[in-house]
Write a structure and sequence with these properties.
This is 1-acylglycerol-3-phosphate O-acyltransferase. The protein contains 11 helices and 8 strands. The protein folds into 2 domains: 83 residues, no CATH class; 234 residues, Glycerol-3-phosphate (1)-acyltransferase, CATH 3.40.1130. The protein is 50% helix and 15% strand. An 8-stranded mixed sheet has the order 4-3-5-2-6-7-1-8, sandwiched between helices. It has 329 residues and is of the alpha/beta class. 30% of the residues are buried. Helix 2 crosses helix 11.
Length: 329
């Protein structure tokens, strides 16, 4: 895979920021001028812009991040071919981006829904694109409003003929020593399993998604993300520095029809998955990947999207050079 990390980091970041701002402008123009005329064309333009952005990020910023999927052959073959709810732990700053890259490999990042706290949409670049993409459900911790947002989003999925992924980081926040300590104190006070490697999941969002969409999402993928011992942490700083690192993603597949029916039992099922993750991570830190487990490394394979993104950037630069210099001659 061709890497362009030889470019000076400052230039690379400026180019990527320029592209992200351009995508924001495209989203706005697409919403104002195209959507009233054709929702179909509007969705295609938005999907293409999203895919180009994700592929460009993968080929540039994440070119030295090795993504390894560990799962059985049947699950691997079905990834991207069926609509699924994904529940994942949140240990690293860039977990959400990594899962988006996985989705891009098997399908399209535009066929993704995810939950996020409301404050994220105010973050420069990432938050703006997330908000304009209309694929991130920003939760306000007001359940009446949040439930309505979930129903509306799931309605979009039900009307689609393509497979969708609904990504849920059920812990609600990233694991830190302080948050883990708070989770352990809460677990002791409530007589729950005391976690060591994960936080206690907030199950209300997951329960509602299952409740409103059982007939559409036929499976649940249980993802456990972890950076192997000895590898640099998966942080934005390390990615921008071009640090070579690895993230392992363990995937288990559960049929929706095997999940409990009642809300309380679904919440319990979700908590049990995080107890399993906790026990698994205890073993992983000692043994690593088992010899009987098959690991598959995935890369960006949609090079035409990357070429399109670079062509768009070169066109911008050419126009800028023309107006700044050649027009004066």
């Amino acid at each position: 895979m061709c890497s362009i990390m030889f470019l000076p980091a400052a230039i690379l970041i400026l180019l990527f920021v320029d592209f992200v701002l351009s995508v924001c402008i495209i989203f706005i123009l697409n919403l104002i001028f195209v959507r009233p005329l054709s929702k179909n064309v509007y969705k295609r333009i938005k999907g293409l812009a999203s895919d180009m952005g994700v592929c460009l990020a993968w080929q540039t910023l994440f070119s030295r991040v090795k993504i390894e999927l560990i799962t059985d052959n049947e699950t691997y073959e079905l990834l991207g071919k069926e609509s699924a709810i994904l529940i994942a732990n949140h240990r690293h700053a860039l977990d959400h981006t990594i899962v988006m890259l996985v989705n891009q490999f098997f399908g399209s990042s535009s066929n993704t829904l995810t939950l996020s706290k409301n404050s994220i949409k105010y973050y420069p670049f990432y938050g703006w694109v997330s908000w304009l993409s209309n694929r991130v459900i920003f939760l306000e911790r007001d359940w009446k409003k949040d439930a309505m947002k979930l129903k509306t989003a799931i309605g979009v999925v039900k009307r689609s003929y393509r497979p969708w992924w609904f990504i849920v980081f059920a812990e609600g926040t990233r694991l830190t020593p302080q948050k883990l300590l708070e989770a352990q104190e809460y677990a002791i006070s409530q007589g729950l399993h005391v976690p060591r490697n994960v936080l206690i999941p907030r199950t209300k969002g997951f329960v509602s998604i299952v409740k409103y969409s059982r007939e559409h999402f036929h499976v649940v993928y249980d993802l456990t993300l972890v950076v192997p011992p000895g590898c640099p942490p998966l942080t934005l700083k390390n990615v921008l520095k071009g640090e070579k690192t690895t993230i392992n993603i363990y995937i288990k597949r559960f049929l929706m029809k095997h999940l409990p029916e009642s809300d309380e039992d679904v919440a319990m099922w979700c908590r049990e998955r995080f107890c399993d993750k906790d026990a698994f991570l205890d073993q992983y830190m000692v043994k690593g990947i088992s010899e009987c487990q098959v690991s598959r490394t995935i890369h960006n394979k949609k090079h035409i999207h990357v070429a399109g993104a670079w062509a768009f950037l070169l066109l911008q630069i050419s126009v800028l050079v023309y107006y700044l210099y050649l027009s004066r001659i």
